[in-house]
Structures are given as structure tokens and as C-alpha cells.
């Protein structure tokens, strides 16, 4: 296939994909997006917490990998909290306070990013460093969840 | 609070969080993890496809941001396809072929990472470059979905 024809076919393929995605409401898409990102964060924090608690052996490469993924993921949920995404036809535990006190929500976001940046470095140092940084990151996560997520 | 006491409290906090997560079966956790990551990929490919199709104006910063997130996300789903995660109590569209032909699945993974790396560069160039790279990435996504995901 010639390049141009190939590009047109490929775009049509993406278009078909996008059409399926757009069949959901914008609020539902946003809720699912942010939940997907948060769930992935939980996975990698879980890997690191397991090492910190001694449930699995400390492995530097695995720790750095999960810490790096977590650090990347904490930058991502924001797009999913746009206007009119407080509720949808899918369940959400996000509290309305997020949109009432966006500055505070955003402050938590900056703080957790600072913690995960330190976590990447600590994960590559040793188990003791990892323990401290996982604790600090987890505390930050929970602080935000306490204020902005229902139980 | 003294640093050590603070770290112990923080670890307890992470522990409580991990306990909730672990109430799910390993297979369900894996399925939810990979679905969350794939869903986030879809979001950012959607942002880029909208620009490529002219549904929203090309904006360099937004394009580079979504392409970067997508490039990071395509490295992440693998942990969710571990042994005995073919099915669970939550729905999954993953085909058993993934575990029967892991080498092919992994090859697709490397190929899509190569495409998203090009996409990051193209997203920062101009709309025409973005169009081509979005098409190539979307084609790569769909090739893998055709082989390894049920309709």
C-alpha cells in the first residue's frame, strides 16, 4: 500500500476505535480514565509496600521500575477531573469537594509528585530507604483520599 | 512525631490500604490493573486522534503531553498478564492466545513502544507529522487487539 493510502486506512482504524470510545458519556469516560490510572498507581504502590513490609524480597530493579511507573502515573489523573465529571452512570468515590477546593486538590497532587520523585531514588538505594519513602508516599496518598474520596 | 514513629504510622497506613487491595483475588487485581492501564492509553490516543481528525485544534503542548503519557503507559500493562490471569470474576476480553503465543504478544509490545516513541517526537513537530504517527500507532494497537482481544 502507498504511504498516503496506508495513513488513510490507519486513521480510519483509529476513527472506528474512537467511535466506540465516544459512545460513552464524557463524564463516564473521565471517571473510568481517572479510576484506571489510580488503580494502576495502587498496583505499583502495592509492589513497593510488599517489599517494605517484608512480604516479598527487596529487588532493586523491580523496585525502581514500580517507583518509576508510579511517579509517571501520579502526573496523569488530572485530565479525568474536568468540569461536569463529579458523577456519571458509573460509580465514583470522588467527593464534590474536589471541584469546590481545586487549589487544595492540586496542592496534594504536587506534594505526591514530590514524594514519588524521592521514592524513585530511594527504591534504587536500599530496603531501608525504600521503607521510609514508601511510608511517606502512602501517607500522602491517604491524606488526599481522606479529604477527597468517600470511604 | 519522631521520624521512626512517623514511618511506622505511615507503613501501617499503607498496610491498611494494601489489605483492601488484597481482598480481591490475584487474577481480578491483574485484570483490573491491565484494563486500567489500557483504558488510560485509549484516553490519550483519543486526544491525539481527535487532533489528527480535526475534531479539536492541534495544540503542541497537549499533543506532546498525551503522546508522552501514552508512551509511558504502553510499557506498563505487562505485569497484569501474569500466570493464571486468563480469567477471573471480572470480565476480560484478553484471549487465551496471549499465554499460548507470548513471544508474539511481546513482539507487538515492543513494536507499539517503537511507534509511541516516534509519536512523541511527531506530536511536537506539526499536525501533519502527528497525523502520520497517530495512524501508525493506532494501526499497531489494532493489530494486537485483532489477534489477542475478543470483539
Most extensive interface: A-B, 45 and 45 residues
Average pLDDT of chain A works out at 90
Q: Considering DSSP H and I runs of 4 or more, what fraction of the residues of chain A is helical?
A: over 70%
- The rounded distance between the terminal residues' Cα atoms of chain A is 55 Å
Uncertain spans of chain A: none
CATH class of chain A: Mainly Alpha
Assigned CATH architecture of chain A = Up-down Bundle
CATH H-tier superfamily of chain A: Cytochrome c/b562
Order of helices and strands of chain A: HHHHHH
Number of strands of chain A: 0
Number of domains of chain A: 1
Which structural class do the helices and strands of chain A define? Answer: mainly alpha
Number of helices of chain A: 6
What is the chains' assembly state? homodimer
Radius of gyration of chain A: 19 Å
Proportion of beta-strand residues of chain A: under 5%
Could you give a short account of the major beta sheet of chain A? none
Quick summary:
The first copy, chain A, has 151 residues and is an all-alpha fold. The first copy, chain A, has one domain (26-148): Cytochrome c/b562 (Four Helix Bundle (Hemerythrin (Met), subunit A), Up-down Bundle). The first copy, chain A, has helices at 3-22, 26-53, 60-73, 97-100, 102-123, 127-148.
Give an overview of the whole structure.
The first copy, chain A, has 151 residues and is mostly helical. Chain A has one domain: Cytochrome c/b562 (Four Helix Bundle (Hemerythrin (Met), subunit A), Up-down Bundle), CATH 1.20.120. Helices cover 73% and strands 0% of the residues of chain A. Chain A has six helices and no strands. In chain A, helix 2 (26-53) runs antiparallel to helix 3 (60-73). The longest helix of chain A has 28 residues, at 26-53. The mean pLDDT of chain A is 90. The A-B interface holds A 6-11, 13-15, 17-18, 21-22, 29, 32-33, 35-40, 42-43, 45-46, 49-50, 52-53, 69, 72, 75-76, 79-80, 131-132, 134-136, 138-139, 141-142 and B 6-11, 13-15, 17-18, 21-22, 29, 32-33, 35-40, 42-43, 45-46, 49-50, 52-53, 69, 72, 75-76, 79-80, 131-132, 134-136, 138-139, 141-142.
Amino acid at each position: 500500500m502507498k504511504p498516503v493510502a496506508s495513513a488513510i486506512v490507519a486513521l480510519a482504524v483509529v476513527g472506528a476505535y474512537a467511535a466506540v470510545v465516544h459512545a460513552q458519556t464524557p463524564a463516564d469516560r473521565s471517571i473510568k480514565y481517572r479510576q484506571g490510572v489510580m488503580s494502576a498507581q495502587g498496583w505499583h504502590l502495592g509492589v513497593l509496600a510488599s517489599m517494605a513490609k517484608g512480604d516479598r524480597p527487596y529487588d532493586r530493579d523491580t523496585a525502581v521500575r514500580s517507583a518509576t511507573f508510579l511517579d509517571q502515573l501520579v502526573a496523569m489523573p488530572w485530565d479525568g477531573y474536568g468540569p461536569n465529571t463529579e458523577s456519571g452512570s458509573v460509580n465514583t468515590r470522588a467527593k464534590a469537594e474536589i471541584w469546590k477546593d481545586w487549589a487544595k486538590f492540586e496542592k496534594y497532587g504536587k506534594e505526591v509528585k514530590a514524594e514519588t520523585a524521592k521514592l524513585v531514588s530511594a527504591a534504587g538505594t536500599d530496603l531501608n530507604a525504600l521503607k521510609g519513602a514508601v511510608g511517606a508516599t502512602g501517607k500522602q496518598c491517604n491524606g488526599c483520599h481522606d479529604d477527597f474520596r468517600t470511604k
